[in-house]
Amino acid sequence: MTNEPTHGNHIETKFDSNYRKVMVAARRARQIQSGASPLIRSQSNKACRLAQEEIQAGKIAYVHTGPPPEKPTNEDPGIPILAL
C-alpha cells in the first residue's frame, strides 16, 4: 500500500469547507483515542483538541475523492419503476 493518490483522487492539506475540516478532525481524534501517537506536542490531553491543533499546524492531509454523486433529476429518472 502506498501513499500515492489513486486515479481521480488527490491529497489536500487546505480545507474547502468548515464541514470537511470538522469531519477530518473528528476522524483524527478517533485515531488518537484508539492509540495513535499525536503528531505535535500540546498542553492538552484531549483527542479533539490535539486533532484541531494538528490541522492548524498543517500536519494533517486528506484524500479528496471528488464531488459527491448527483441525485437524478425528474428529466433523468434513472431506473424505471413499474407499478403492478
Automatic annotation (TrEMBL):
Matches recorded under InterPro entries = DNA-dir_RNA_pol_omega, Pol_omega/Rpo6/RPB6, RPB6/omega-like_sf
Q: Which domain of life does the protein's organism represent?
A: Bacteria
* Species whose genome carries this gene: Acidicapsa dinghuensis
Q: Which SUPFAM superfamilies match?
A: RPB6/omega subunit-like (SSF63562)
- Any one GO cellular component localisation term in the record: DNA-directed RNA polymerase complex
Documented EC number(s): 2.7.7.6
What are the protein's UniProt keywords? DNA-directed RNA polymerase, Nucleotidyltransferase, Transcription, Transferase
Q: Where is this region: Disordered?
A: 63-84
Q: What class of enzyme is it?
A: transferase
User: GO MF terms on file?
Assistant: DNA-directed RNA polymerase activity
Is the Transferase keyword given for this protein? yes
NCBIfam families xrefs: rpoZ (TIGR00690)
Q: Does the keyword Transferase apply?
A: yes
Q: Which reaction(s) are listed as its catalytic activity?
A: RNA(n) + a ribonucleoside 5'-triphosphate = RNA(n+1) + diphosphate
Q: What is this protein called?
A: DNA-directed RNA polymerase subunit omega
Q: Which family does it belong to?
A: Belongs to the RNA polymerase subunit omega family.
Query: Where does the record locate the signal sequence feature?
Result: none
